[in-house]
Amino acid sequence: MAQPAALNICNASSTPPTPNSLVVKRRFRDTVCMAFRIRPSLRNINHILFTCIILIDAYIILIPFLPAVTSRPAAAQSPKAAPYVQQLQAPHTTADTDQPNQLIIPGMQLDQQIYEGTDTYAELAKGVWHWPGSSTPDKGSNTVLLGHRFTYTNPRGVFYFLNTVKVGDEIGVIWHNVTYTYMVDTIQVVPPTQTDILDSTSKPTLTVYTCTPTWWPKDRLVVVSHLEKTS
Questions:
Q1: Is residue 38 predicted with pLDDT exceeding 80?
Q2: Are 172 and 109 in contact (CB under 8 A)?
Q3: pLDDT by residue (tens digit) across 45-69?
Q4: Of all helices (H) and strands (E), which one includes residue 146?
Q5: In this structure, which of 33, 45, 110, 212 has its CB flanked by the most CB atoms within 10 Å?
Q6: Coil, strand or helix at 181
Q7: Dihedrals phi, psi of 197, to nearest 5 degrees
Q8: What letter does residue 88 receive in the DSSP assignment?
Q9: How far does the chain reach from its first CA to its final CA, in angstroms?
């Protein structure tokens, strides 16, 4: 019996797929499967990157405070400060060969060499720097010493604990084998534009300053002392 024309049309459209169409379908299927396999690995990479960012941010935020927790100095009157006080009181020789100039602050348990030079960044990287535009203890007027409060390469900067110094504390400078003992008069925070802290003074003065606050060094912490005695 002859089939209706409509059935002939339907049967014609249901021809089996060609080999090329099968290849295309397989490739599409493989691509989709690959995408689902790659997605979890990309998610893991994102998690790792996010964790790294959190750790780096935590380091940047917390490391400036670490020395304050792990190595805070004792007060100037404490037994820990006694060796530094004794060093100020000990006689020094007047040998022909000069020993390195030193800054001694018992209230910080600090005994550091004073460096001189004109390369600001290089000298500050070493420690305490004598500002070349200022006087020296043997000439009177205003001797200016400065140093880093904090750097990420050296978290405990030379003046990290300068904020622990108090009015009335002694500060010693051994300059060319002579000890100059100063007493702290004022402690103040000033903007970096206030350059009068570098000015000459009529009386022998010691100005020590550093950046503040630790985590955002926008100002200057300045400790000014008068000469009390020479030995």
A1: no
A2: no
A3: 777 777 777 766 655 555 555 555 4
A4: strand 142-146
A5: 110
A6: strand
A7: -65, -15
A8: H
A9: 133
